[in-house]
């Protein structure tokens, strides 16, 4: 079934490239500009530096002195807290990437990795403040309100999965089970490996952005996307493209506000594919996808609640 899907997808996209080269080229340029001007300079340094910290086993050690706080508040280990913090600062899909790397390097357990995937992968503060609030919503909604809604939604999802799904039984790796890497014998290789992994990751993300940009252009060509359903589907398919179209949409501000928050919290199919490509196959994506859907719904509910009391 998967082979049939990819075959049909590839043939349809090739036909679109051959029959409508100008539209395909414009979509490709738009996707590659996003990758070159945003993802590459922003994500690559973080990917390299976080890779070094993980390979030197310093990710968890830096937060070890206050590990009891992470255990009690978030239900994660010190290494897991590192994924939470960096994921919150860097945005999609760095949180999931770091979680997978920590698991692959035996710094966290499988249950903790699955738990972390449910609330460490979300939009960065820079994206929310500059693109979402300033460009898309034109500063009509205060940034602090938007940040508060996202924070409450993330907290709700974290508590739901911690106490309801996993029943507060997340297992932590003991010190003797964690992989120890002799820093002195291979310190020179850490930088090389981290740089190559960083470039591989960001290049892979660029490929997904390119493919989904062309797919979005293909769908827009054959189907009128200039309505509420079309804007929603466009955002679900690819977040940035959908938000760009939504900001110029002739729809009520309340709908635009709710759709923008939902799409940003959910992330979209493109980001889901990106995340899947970066997360080890040993970890199931079902908790992640479920959490993102619930995150989008709870974000809308909190937005409606605050719009009534503010």
Low-confidence stretches: none
Total individual domains: 1
The rounded distance between the terminal residues' Cα atoms is: 49 Å
Say what oligomer this is. Answer: single chain
Average pLDDT confidence is 87
Q: What's the Cα radius of gyration?
A: 20 Å
> Beta fraction of the residues?
under 5%
Structural class by SSE content: mainly alpha
- Count of individual beta strands: 0
Could you walk me through the main structural features you see in this protein, from its secondary elements to its overall organization?
- The relative contact order is 0.13.
- The chain has one domain (33-169, 188-309).
- The model has no long low-confidence stretch (mean pLDDT 87).
- It is built from 15 helices and no strands.
- The protein has helices at residues 2-19, 21-55, 58-61, 67-73, 78-90, 94-104, 110-117, 125-136, 143-165, 183-222, 228-237, 239-247, 253-266, 269-278, 286-309.
- The chain has 310 residues and is mostly helical.
Structure keywords:
77% helix; single chain; mainly alpha; 15 helices; 310 residues
What is this entry, summarized?
Helices cover 77% and strands 0% of the residues. It has 15 helices and no strands.
Sequence-ordered SSE layout with sheet pairings:
Layout: H1 2-19, H2 21-55, H3 58-61, H4 67-73, H5 78-90, H6 94-104, H7 110-117, H8 125-136, H9 143-165, H10 183-222, H11 228-237, H12 239-247, H13 253-266, H14 269-278, H15 286-309
Helix pairs in contact: 1-2, 2-6, 2-10, 5-6, 6-7, 9-15, 10-14, 11-12, 12-13, 13-15
């Amino acid at each position: 079934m998967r082979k049939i899907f990819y075959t049909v997808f590839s043939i349809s996209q090739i036909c679109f490239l051959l029959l409508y080269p100008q539209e395909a080229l414009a979509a490709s340029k738009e996707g590659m500009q996003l990758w070159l001007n945003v993802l590459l300079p922003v994500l690559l340094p973080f990917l390299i530096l976080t890779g070094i910290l993980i390979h030197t086993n310093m990710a968890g050690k830096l937060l070890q002195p206050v590990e009891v706080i992470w255990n009690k508040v978030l239900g994660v280990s010190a290494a897991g807290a590192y994924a939470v913090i960096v994921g919150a600062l860097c945005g999609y899909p760095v949180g999931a990437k770091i979680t997978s790397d920590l698991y692959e390097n035996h710094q966290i357990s499988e249950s903790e990795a699955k738990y972390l995937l449910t609330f460490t992968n979300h939009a960065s503060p820079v994206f929310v403040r500059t693109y979402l609030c300033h460009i898309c919503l034109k500063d009509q909604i205060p940034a602090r309100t938007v940040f508060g809604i996202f924070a409450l939604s993330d907290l709700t999802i974290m508590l739901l999965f911690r106490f309801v799904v996993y029943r507060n039984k997340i297992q932590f790796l003991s010190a003797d089970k964690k992989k120890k890497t002799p820093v002195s014998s291979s310190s020179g290789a850490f930088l090389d490996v981290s740089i190559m992994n960083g470039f591989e990751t960001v290049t892979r993300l660029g490929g997904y952005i390119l493919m989904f940009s062309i797919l979005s252009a293909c769908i827009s060509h054959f189907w009128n996307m200039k309505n509420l359903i079309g804007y929603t589907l466009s955002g679900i398919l690819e977040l940035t493209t959908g938000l760009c179209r939504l900001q110029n949409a002739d729809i009520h501000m309340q709908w635009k506000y709710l759709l923008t928050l939902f799409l940003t919290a959910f992330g979209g199919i493109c980001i889901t594919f990106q995340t899947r490509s970066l997360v080890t196959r040993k970890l199931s994506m079902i908790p992640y996808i479920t959490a993102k859907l619930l995150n989008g719904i709870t974000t809308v509910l909190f937005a409606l609640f605050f719009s009534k009391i503010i």
